[in-house]
Specification:
This protein has twelve helices and eight strands. The chain is an alpha/beta fold. An eight-stranded parallel sheet has the order 1-2-3-4-5-6-7-8. The C terminus is likely disordered.
Length: about 280
């Protein structure tokens, strides 16, 4: 079975002691592709290095809403240059969006950087990886004003109505560790009842650990077990969930198939034709 982790911060400092082993475990578990999103200009180089050094890792570049207080308007030009300079190795703009959960936030500054990055995505024809915490309606409003080529609503935890609105706009919804907690009844209901073609899998490692990890660090090799939980909720074979969610990822991130073909080590575990239909 082939799995695609559509959101994993493999460049994070938490992986510095054993990144080689973490990447190897993911490959051994069948996680053939990992999308690594940036969060600010300061970590663009780290993301690029991870995607260069670890076959199967692909990049997204963007300015995260929780990092906008350190961002400058000039960073948008840096982002555009990064995207334009490496079109062959970028699958999306991200992680971008809004976060209305954090205290003492500057919502207008968040909106400014979010909208400007949506404009860049529209101009370049790239999908986006969205951070949507406590801000789903505000994000949907901006997406209607500044349409993009779809993308993924990462760590989705909204209502069914909000989910349907994202789907209408060409988005897939990211499900990961939060779905594995029995008390997450609304999220598990969504995971069970949404069209399977609207769901992609993610870990958000090293964050959002699954129920069985407790407070231990999350990592991409946990993705098959997350898929198994989704399969259990939907009463489907795990292989069917793996095939569908990988295909969904390729559909919404159309740069993935060519990148997979160009990744020599990933070819041994990934059959692009097997997951793109």
């Amino acid at each position: 079975m082939v799995f695609i982790d559509t959101h994993c911060h493999l460049d994070a400092a938490e992986f510095d002691p054993d990144r080689d082993a973490v990447a190897a475990r993911a490959q051994q578990a069948g996680v053939a592709t990992i999308v690594v999103p940036a969060v600010e200009c300061a970590n663009f180089a780290a993301v690029a290095a991870v995607c260069r050094d670890y076959p199967g890792c692909v990049a997204a570049y963007g300015i995260h809403p929780m990092y906008v207080e350190h961002a400058r308007e000039e960073d948008l030009a840096v982002l555009r240059e990064m995207l334009s300079a490496h079109p062959e190795s970028v699958v999306a703009i991200g992680e971008i969006g809004l976060d209305f959960f954090v205290p003492q936030r500057d919502e207008e500054r968040q909106r400014f950087f979010f909208v400007e990055q949506l404009k860049i995505a529209g101009e370049l024809g790239l999908p986006v990886l969205l951070h949507v915490r406590r801000a789903v309606d505000a994000i949907l409003k901006e997406l209607r004003r500044f349409p993009v080529r779809g993308g993924i609503a990462h760590a989705f935890n909204g209502s069914r109505q909000q989910a349907d609105e994202f789907i209408k706009l060409g988005f897939k919804l990211g499900f990961g560790g939060a779905m594995t907690f029995p008390r997450a009844t609304r999220l598990r209901e969504l995971a069970t009842t949404l069209p399977l073609e609207s769901i992609v899998l993610e870990t958000d490692a090293p964050d959002i650990p699954s129920e069985w990890l407790g407070r231990h660090r999350n990592q991409p090799s946990e993705l098959p077990r997350i898929a198994a939980e989704l399969a259990r909720l939907r009463r489907l074979p795990v292989a069917e969930v793996a095939r569908a969610t990988a295909g969904n990822a390729i559909t919404v991130l159309p740069g993935l198939p060519q990148l997979l073909v160009n990744a020599p080590a990933a070819r041994s575990t990934t059959d692009v034709s097997d997951v793109s239909h």
